[in-house]
Amino acid sequence: MYRIGKEELDAVERVFRAKALFKINSSEQDAMHAEEEMKEKFGTEHALLMTSGHAALASALVAMGVGPGDQVIVPAYTYISSAMAVVEAGAIPVVADVDETLTLCPKAFEAAITEHTKAVIPVHIQGFPCKMDEICRIAREHGILVLEDACQADGGSFGGKRLGTIGDAGALSFNYYKIITAGEGGALLTDNKKIFERALIYHDSGAVAYFGDQLSDVETQLFCGTEYRTNGVSAAILREQLKKLDTILSDLRGNKRYMMTALSDVCEMIPSNDLAGDCGTTLAIRFSSSEEAEKFAAAEGIGGTVPIHTGKHIYKNWTPIMNKKGALHPLMDPFLMDANKDIIPDYREDMCPRTLALLSCTVYLSVNPDWTKEEMDAKVEVIRRALAQ
């Protein structure tokens, strides 16, 4: 979260005064307005606001028809929710290496494709855009659906197109740690009417037919799903945050560019698939060894993060996936389903060595959109001193 204040507070007060806390209400209708504003902001035919990025990923996969007997390729470096959403749909996640950009390696993606591959989830981790032209080309050649996980990249872009709008569907997240926040929240973006309708039903199957006219233009037959319905308070906050998104991104990108230029003679940043579309949240400095990375990250005044230590963002720490425990009840566990018995990979801690090596030799430094030039100059000097040690 970067910028939140009186505008969001006033929006919440408005919702409380109108007693419009439920998603479907007769007065404020903030969820409906938020979805309309997202469609305009991101340039998609459909937007569906819900409770989390995970909810958006799971709803999209179900809506794509992913299920038992299918494999979905996910990068080795992403939050566990990317893989857990695959399991929620009844399918099996296949883990592929990232490349020097720390996003899904197109060659690794292509090498992981089998006759059972139904979808791929490129993840724009830390706001770093994936190489979407290459990924989409490979996917088209093999008849594979593309679900973008843009949960850490709200508003970013690749080739001038917003992340989350390039594939068949995309997922955003608005929890406390994201570029814009609703406290908790997520959204599914798509131009595909069938995916939208199925996701609409799945994300709120207990209420979508009973509140408002949400099914007025829906042709898909109702089926049982779950409940990822949002509320008026979160939606009202998000509407104010959406107004701030592009300014936040502009300031993040400007500050990141300033820092990169000021440090270009003393360190090497990881390469980018689209530096102009990068969200600007993170300076990612590359080192020749893990020892150098650890030393720099721990230096006085740096406060750096070596991403190999980021827990459930690393595949080997996805305990339920690595242990092939997909559900409490064995008959509901995709890893025990007969349709999946011949398509389950051999998950090993060392199965993606390139990813582990790259993450061990990189240091992240967070960027703040509100830094002044003087503050950045001071940080540059601290970084220079640490690199010289």
Give the secondary structure arrangement, pairings included:
Elements: H1 6-18, H2 30-42, E1 46-50, H3 53-63, E2 71-75, H4 81-88, E3 92-96, H5 106-112, E4 117-120, H6 132-142, E5 145-149, E6 157-158, E7 161-162, E8 169-173, E9 186-190, H7 193-203, H8 232-263, E10 268-269, E11 282-286, H9 290-297, H10 319-322, H11 353-360, E12 362-366, H12 373-388
Parallel strand pairs: 2-3, 2-4, 4-5, 5-8
Antiparallel strand pairs: 1-9, 6-7, 8-9, 10-11, 11-12
Helix pairs in contact: 1-8, 2-8, 3-4, 3-7, 8-12
Structural commentary:
With 389 residues, the chain is an alpha/beta fold. It folds into 2 domains: 6-242, Type I PLP-dependent aspartate aminotransferase-like (Major domain) (Aspartate Aminotransferase, domain 2, 3-Layer(aba) Sandwich), CATH 3.40.640.10; 247-309 and 354-388, Aspartate Aminotransferase, domain 1. The protein contains 12 helices and 12 strands. The protein has helices at 6-18, 30-42, 53-63, 81-88, 106-112, 132-142, 193-203, 232-263, 290-297, 319-322, 353-360, 373-388, and strands spanning 46-50, 71-75, 92-96, 117-120, 145-149, 157-158, 161-162, 169-173, 186-190, 268-269, 282-286, 362-366. The protein has a 7-stranded mixed β-sheet with strand order 1-9-8-5-4-2-3, sandwiched between helices. A 3-stranded antiparallel β-sheet has the order 10-11-12. It has a two-stranded antiparallel ribbon with strand order 6-7. Helix 6 links the parallel strand 4 (117-120) and strand 5. The radius of gyration is 21 Å and the shape is globular. 51% of the residues are buried. The model has no long low-confidence stretch (mean pLDDT 97).
